[in-house]
Amino acid sequence: MSGKMMLFSGTSHPQLAKEIAELLGTELGEVTIEKFANNEIYVRFLDSVRGAELFLIQSLCGDVNESLMELLIMIDAAKRASAESICVVIPHFAYARQDKKSAAREPISARLVADLLTVAGANRIITMDLHQGQIQGFFDMPVNHLTALGVLADYFAGLNLEDPVVVSPDVGRAKVCKKLADMLDVPLAIMHKGRPEHNVAEITSVIGDVDGKICIVTDDMIDTAGTITAGAKALMDKGAKAIYLGATHAVLSPPARERIRDSVVVDCVVTNTIAIPEDRTCDKLTILSVAPMFAAAIKNVYNDGSVSALFDPDFEF
Hints:
- The chain is α/β, with parallel strands linked by helices.
- It is 28% helix and 27% strand.
- The protein contains 8 helices and 14 strands.
- The radius of gyration is 20 Å and the shape is globular.
- The model has no long low-confidence stretch (mean pLDDT 94).
């Protein structure tokens, strides 16, 4: 890229943005983000961005609608200020679960968000562990889709667990969980679940041997924690020795904290793609940083390097 690299952060997760900037040896640019009395959002870049290669870091978390609107306005402001290119770094991509029509007269909201980002003026997206990888196809621009599987694998490998097995929480997640199982060189088991209504799941069966084993259950996100804690109990009922949870995105909508705290789970391992308030944490929650991976991706994009090189097991962040 020909222009100067500049990083700016929205208000949804400034801690992660600051950590990324520090790893890149730079500072976040100055930007004013305010609200008018009627809650309209105002954005103004205080640093000149003319001809610059911008990386706007905004995780769609907390009030996701406010975070999204803030990001769209930041993109528009940057475009009108003559930025050379605008790469949007979205650690957690909201609305990703609404990626298809499951019933009549439903929206495909993930596609709508993709369209909004495109029309606003984004030139590239860097995100992590989309609910479905096919969402990349909703964009008519490059999408660098990172994964936290390596971060989770390094953590679990460091625990030196005795006789572990990776467990997929459902059939749809089995392919991703198989990658984690291969990283750890352990077998795979699969739970089968049904969803009678939103945020409610029922575990009906377990495919694979979990008797006497330490189970590592992984998913792309933990929202209310109802599904994954119910799955943990089902695995214990099937004879599992202990349960560890792993997820990229810690949404942790109430009552997730209480469900995790009171569950049979030994350790719930998540990443910091989402800002986690103190009142949503508990002693069983372990938070890993994905800032090194995002910093490396930004560096490689800016230098026209390979982003896929980040997925090499020997790559050092």
